[in-house]
Design brief:
By secondary structure, the chain is an all-alpha fold. The protein has a single domain, classed as ABC transporter involved in vitamin B12 uptake, BtuC, CATH 1.10.3470. It contains 14 helices and 4 strands. The strands form 2 sheets. It has a two-stranded antiparallel sheet. The chain has a two-stranded antiparallel ribbon with strand order 2-3. The protein is globular and about 55 Å long.
């Protein structure tokens, strides 16, 4: 009797790329670093590496919250506008009170308030999170100019405020330390707590999660608030870095954050994603942005790249979901 042989099917290259995105992303990061350093040896200078780390910190802090949101099958497009407004509020309160800690609290709480509003609109009014946060973004972009017609400078020149972004803890910049703490905390929540498992469950199948006794609306609201608080923290650090509250500081920031998160493999449809992938996505995008600057290319490309990344990552996510369905 002749043996019945099973047909050998080869995995399409695009599917292999989608299924091994963290490894591919790490390889791409290595290639980018080598290529940029060949074009400009300045890339490996201590000053440039610190600048990249500071920029990565700002994106990663919000990216941690955005990862949780996307895993829960939600999104927040208002983070850029909230980032700028939180920085303006923090700077204004610091100037008015001459107290850095009151400014810090005001900036972070303002971001949390925006997250709470977004969460209530989504969970109570049942508005799609994409539409809801676009509306919030527009409201914040206009309201920040009603609050302050121009940038609010650090009139009191308090060293403690600028130290939030330019200071060091040993050899490590303070923003990197803050981002590392946020990363570690979020990683533990997603991987080792019941709350983290609930977030994945809600994103994977909201109806099944509800039938299992979970309360998806409450979880979604909490994740929006967490994202808002982290956005306020990042806005505070950015205001410290610029030594001013700048109303236009967050334009386009939401695209960079979302691009980094989905580039790292977090699914747009929810239920899938890792914080390690987000970290790789953030570093990759910031290395590209830094390379554009030090190689003397047109800086408008910094807006083009996230758009291209979002399309590519969305396509790879679709490939992953189709493979999973099969």
């Amino acid at each position: 009797m002749s043996e019945i042989t099973q047909p050998v099917t080869s995995t399409p290259p695009v599917r292999r790329l989608a299924e091994n995105s963290p490894i591919v992303l790490f390889g791409l990061l290595v290639i980018l670093c080598i290529a940029i350093s060949i074009g400009s040896p300045q890339f490996y200078s201590v000053e440039n590496i610190i600048a990249i780390l500071r920029q990565c910190s700002l994106v990663l802090i919000i990216g941690a919250g955005m990862t949780m949101l996307l895993i829960a099958a939600e999104v927040d497009l208002s983070v850029g506008a909230s980032l700028a407004f939180a920085g303006v509020v923090a700077m204004d309160v610091t100037n008015q009170t001459s107290n850095v800690w009151l400014g810090v609290g005001a900036g972070i709480l303002f971001g949390g308030f925006v997250g709470l509003v977004n969460g209530l609109i989504v969970t109570r009014l049942k508005v799609n999170s994409l539409i809801a946060t676009i509306a919030t973004m527009m409201i914040l972009q206009g309201s920040v100019f009603l609050y302050s017609r121009q940038a609010i400078q650090n009139h009191n020149q308090l060293p403690a405020f600028t130290a939030l972004s330019t200071g060091y803890l040993g050899p490590v910049p303070v923003p990197v330390v803050i981002a590392a703490i946020v990363f570690a905390g979020t990683f533990v929540v997603l991987r080792h707590t019941v709350f983290g498992r609930y977030i994945y469950a809600v994103g994977a199948n909201r109806q099944a999660a509800r039938l299992s006794g979970l309360k998806p609306e409450r979880l979604t609201l909490l994740v929006f608030v967490i994202t808002g608080l982290l956005t306020g923290l990042s806005g505070l650090i950015l205001a410290s870095l610029m030594n001013a509250g700048q109303p236009t500081a967050g334009r386009g920031f939401e695209l960079t954050v979302i691009a980094a998160v989905i580039l790292g493999g977090t699914s747009l449809s929810g239920g899938r994603g890792t914080l390690l992938g987000t970290l790789l996505g953030v570093v990759t995008l910031q290395v590209i942005n830094n390379g554009i600057i030090i190689l003397g290319w047109d800086q408008e490309l910094q807006m083009v790249v996230p758009g291209v990344v979002i399309v590519l990552a969305a396509y790879l996510d679709l490939v992953r979901r189709r493979a999973g369905a099969r």
